[in-house]
Every structure is written in C-alpha cells, then in structure tokens.
Design goal:
The chain has 234 residues and is α/β, with parallel strands linked by helices. Helices cover 49% and strands 19% of the residues. The protein contains 9 helices and 9 strands. Strands 5, 6, 7, 8 and 9 form a 5-stranded mixed sheet that branches. Strands 1-2 form a two-stranded antiparallel ribbon. Strands 3-4 form a two-stranded parallel sheet. A hairpin with a 6-residue loop joins strand 5 and strand 6. Helix 4 packs across helix 5. The radius of gyration is 24 Å and the shape is elongated.
C-alpha cells in the first residue's frame, strides 16, 4: 500500500480483506469457508528495501497464524527475536538425539487404593548442553512442525523398550509401559513396521507396551487411524 499516512491505514485495509474473504463460497452445493492470516511491515521503520519488508511481513504473518489465524499482525523487533530464537532452537534440537541430550524419565503409575504400582509412563526431557533442561512444551511442538518428531519418536520408543526389557528380565516390572506417540509419527506409512522392528530388536514382548495417542488424530483420517490401531493391537 503506497503513500499511507499512519500504520492504522494498513490495519484498516487488512481488516477489509478479512471481512471480504469471510463469507462462505458455494461450490457444488457445499459452503467453503476461507480464512486468511496477514503480516504487515511498514517502510522505512521495518525495512528500507523490498527484501527486508517481505521477510518481516512474512514473520508477522506466521505470528498471526500462531495466534489463531484469520487475523493480522504488525511486525516488531520482538517477533524477529522470537523467530531467531526458534530457528536456533530447531537447529539445536536436530542435533539433540545424536548428542545424547534426550533423556527419558519413567514415572510410576500408582493405584491410590492399594498403593501398588501399575506400570510406568515415559516422560521425555531435553538436557541441552547449551540451554540446560528444556521443558517438553518448549520443543515438542517445534519437533512436530519441522518433522524432527519422527527421528525423536523412534529414539524414544526404542530407548524405552530397551530399558523396560531389562527391568522385565530383572523381575522389577510386571505391567505395561505407556509411551506417548505424536500424530505425525502415528500416521506415517511405516509406523506399524517401525513398532514391530523395535519390539523385535529389543526382544520386549508386545504385551508390555502401551501407546498413548491423542483424539485429534482421529479427526483427520478416522478410518486410517482405526486401521493402524487394530493392527497395533494384533
């Protein structure tokens, strides 16, 4: 938008775009709903050339997406700092498995009535050499968005099964071990074979493994999800 007097002029234009795209569009008897996320960068405050302005508007647009979509967001330095921090976090996370920085905690499941332990749940932690202990909510979503979760999930499952097989052989545990599975990992074509290979290589009987999945996975492809679950149970 050229020759604007104040940033709010760009905001008003962005709002008009949102309103124009909001109404449903009828196609073959179906109402299609569209949403739009808009990022705004202002010259010369946010950049003095087209390349800078486009990059900064792109950063602002992703911020609008992360805040629920169907909105607009102005670029500011904090967004740039957050984007750089996220990029550095992603780069470190890609090396975390090979650097032996991913550690697993095994949380007992206790029956409060009898006081007995009914298996364990696997909790993943990232003990970064440069960042210290990174909470799961700070890196799991990034791992899922970037595809790192596939390598990470495989490592978690294999490491957990190795440890649990040792405890089973020692007579320490007799119940199941619960491992969380990402939706991205679960819906991968080779996931079933991956689980089968890990159980075979670690010699852990399948009856000891419990896979925890989220309900959201059923929304996107219910039939496929049910088919995978049935095969896993078998």
């Amino acid at each position: 938008i050229q020759d604007i007097s104040e940033p709010h002029v760009a905001a008003k234009t962005a709002q008009r775009i949102l309103e124009e795209i909001e109404p449903a569009i009828a196609v073959d008897g179906n109402d299609l709903i569209n949403t739009v996320s808009i990022g705004i960068a202002i010259f010369p405050k946010d950049g003095d050339n087209m390349g800078q302005l486009m990059r900064h508007a792109d950063t602002a647009m992703y911020s609008a997406k992360s805040k629920g979509k169907n909105s607009y967001q102005f670029f500011d330095q904090n967004l740039k700092d957050e984007a750089l921090e996220r990029l550095e976090l992603e780069q470190d996370l890609r090396q975390a498995v090979s650097n032996n920085e991913i550690i697993l905690h095994y949380q007992p499941k206790v029956d409060l009535t009898s006081g007995t332990t009914g298996g364990v749940e696997v909790l993943v932690r990232w003990l970064s050499k440069s960042r210290g202990l990174v909470p799961p909510n700070n890196f799991i979503s990034i791992a899922e968005e970037t595809g790192i979760i596939l390598k990470l999930g495989n490592y978690i499952l294999e490491t957990a099964c190795q440890q649990y097989k040792y405890w089973v052989d020692q007579g320490i545990v007799h119940n199941r071990m619960a491992v969380n599975v990402s939706g991205n990992q679960f819906m991968q074509p080779g996931f079933l074979q991956q689980v089968d290979n890990i159980l075979e290589s670690t010699k852990l009987p399948g009856k000891y493994l419990e896979l925890e999945i989220t309900e959201s996975m059923l929304i996107h492809d219910t039939e496929r999800a049910i088919e995978i679950m049935q095969s896993l149970r078998e």
